[in-house]
């Protein structure tokens, strides 16, 4: 059955997901430091903005000023979308302290109060009619209180799915650990994508693996990936064989590649049809 999907438009990732993320899903993006989670979260939002969708970025780890700079670093011009009222940043970092933060309109004063965050986020999603949300990072919300991790995720998930939005929750895990963010969180989310950086023989290798994604088939292998001046690229037609002492990159079987390519084409056609129907309905 063809289900509605949100294409990430991150090169190679929609193939790995057999078309994209099922819509209204909450996806955990887990990984150690420097693996590309924040870049991926920004790219996902920008790709939606560039195609006419609204988006919200919730920052808990970086000052809004550096968030905007980081978008600019990849030539993702969010300033024009902010002016048009299609994109906004929820500042859950500064608590309103400092002169530059005075300019922020969506500020969470107390990040320990998840209800305040949910209220600000709900308003933000409505104000820009957001279809995509990135929260960077959810780990900050329960780092010192693991017992509230699951309830925090469930509360956010209810708001996000209820408003018809698809979200990436960035989750930080320690270097070298293959966990995702704790048992309560891992089972509560609809999907888990893991980004990794491994040192083998004095060299670092980037890779990505989709661990779970409800309601869709997924590629069951680890794919090599890169970060470039244009953001993340996933080499979807190859897999990375990694042992403690060796690395090799192998091509995927042709039938698998063909099936993944077809799934993306079908999703693209379905997305185009849905947009055309919505536009016709608007014009009537
Ligand atoms: N233009 C670029 N070309 C190649 N690599 C880049 C470029 N810009 C940034 N990077 C790489 O991206 C990495 C940072 O990615 P990102 O901030 O998304 O990591 P992260 O997984 O969110 O890390 P953390 O959890 O520590 O915040 C940097 O370590 C840097 O090596």
TrEMBL record:
Entry keyword set: ATP-binding, Nucleotide-binding
Lineage top rank: taxon: Archaea
Domain KaiC: 4-248
Comp. bias (Basic and acidic residues): 263-275
Transmembrane annotation, as ranges: none
Family per record: Belongs to the UPF0273 family.
Database matches in InterPro entries: KaiC-like_dom, KaiC_dom, P-loop_NTPase, UPF0273_KaiC-like
Binding site for ATP: 31-38
The protein's name: UPF0273 protein GCM10007112_14170
Keyword ATP-binding: yes
Keyword Nucleotide-binding: yes
UniProt region (Disordered), positions on chain: 263-284
Gene Ontology MF terms in the entry: ATP binding
């Amino acid at each position: 059955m063809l289900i509605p999907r949100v294409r990430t438009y991150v090169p190679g990732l929609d193939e790995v997901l057999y078309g994209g993320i099922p819509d209204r899903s909450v996806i955990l993006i887990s990984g150690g430091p420097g693996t590309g989670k924040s870049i991926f979260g920004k790219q996902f939002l920008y790709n939606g903005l560039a195609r006419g969708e609204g988006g919200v970025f919730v920052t808990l780890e970086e000052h809004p000023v550096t968030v905007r700079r980081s978008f600019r670093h990849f030539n993702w011009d969010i300033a024009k979308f902010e002016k048009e009222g299609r994109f906004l940043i929820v500042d859950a970092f500064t608590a309103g302290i400092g002169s530059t933060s005075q300019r922020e309109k969506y500020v969470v004063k107390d990040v320990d109060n998840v209800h305040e965050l949910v209220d600000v986020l709900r308003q933000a999603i409505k104000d820009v009619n957001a279809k995509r949300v990135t929260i960077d990072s959810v780990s900050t919300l329960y780092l010192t209180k693991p017992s509230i991790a699951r309830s925090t995720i469930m509360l956010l998930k209810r708001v996000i799915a209820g408003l018809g939005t698809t979200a990436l929750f960035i989750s930080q895990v320690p270097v070298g650990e293959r966990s995702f963010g704790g048992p309560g969180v891992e089972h509560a989310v609809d999907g888990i994508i893991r980004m990794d950086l491994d040192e083998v023989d004095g060299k670092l290798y980037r890779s990505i693996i989709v661990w779970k994604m409800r309601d869709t088939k997924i590629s069951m292998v680890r794919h090599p990936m890169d970060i470039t001046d244009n953001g993340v690229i996933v080499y979807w037609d190859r897999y990375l064989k990694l042992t403690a002492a060796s690395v090799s990159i192998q091509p995927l079987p042709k039938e698998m590649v063909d099936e993944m390519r077809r799934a993306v084409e079908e999703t693209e056609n379905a997305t185009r049809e849905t947009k055309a129907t919505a536009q016709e309905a608007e014009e009537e």
